[in-house]
Amino acid sequence: MTCISGSVQDVIVSTASARDSIMELENQLVDSAADTKKAFYSLIDSHLQDAGIGDATEVEYNSAIKVEYTSEFSLAKIAGVVTSSLKALMISIALSAGYPVTTPAAIAAYVDVVNAVAEAAKSSSNAAASLSFSMNRLSKGMFAFLYARSVSINDVDVFGSEAVTSTAIYYRFMQSIDAIKVSAKYDAAIIDANNLLKMKTLQAALIDDVAEGKLSLEEWVKKDTLYSKVIDTIMKRLDAADFSRVQPFNLTADQGFGRVLVHSFDKGASADQVLVETSMRKLASMGSKYGIIIETSQKRLAETYF
Fold first, then answer.
1. What is the pTM of this model?
2. How many CB atoms sit inside 10 A of residue 64's CB?
């Protein structure tokens, strides 16, 4: 499909030579399509490899051409072709999967990506060259790739002083089941990590309850044991999900938990640490029978458990 800007279309309508020139431009892109596709696919393979994705399969591949004066910036036509195809694909996949695979907002944002890639191909700047290829993850396991190539013609007698550019946009949508599983597992890990922090805070609070006389030693032993079992189960799931305990754990409001949280597992939670230390000092003054709580707490603090 070819999208031609209104200003170029006006010239085409008025002169046969303009139509011939545009056809020549399009033929140049068509003649090199096989080589362009090969280069495009090579870039895709490289980027997927870097991303650690080995099972991506093609769900759609196509191309479109836009013709315009070099200074023009078609904000709707060419992006509309790509995003219309993407919307149809997303609807089809959503129907078979039983749930939405991306959001209208993500597709709307992709319009800017399409236009940027097309503009990069039109540019003569070396700095823009690398931008003529794009890889974006639109949703879990769904990747969109763009590649653009342009050719231009200068014909003062036909088009005036400005060059006319024909740009081919190649787009390929791919799906990775492994990426869906990894992403889903990571989402679960986010929930687990958040819950782990809550459980440890609750466990620290148990010590404070004993120090405040709200919980007996026997009750602490039972509850602390139960909390420890839950925490151990969560930790095992996080380990299975390869969740990093070294990198800070960032929980943003848009992940559905209603607040922003930055936590480092190797440093622990200072608020919990202060609570435990304060409670330990109070328990130490309450008699030797609380020695088990103090000993356990000291060990946990030394291991940055809290």
1. 0.64
2. 21
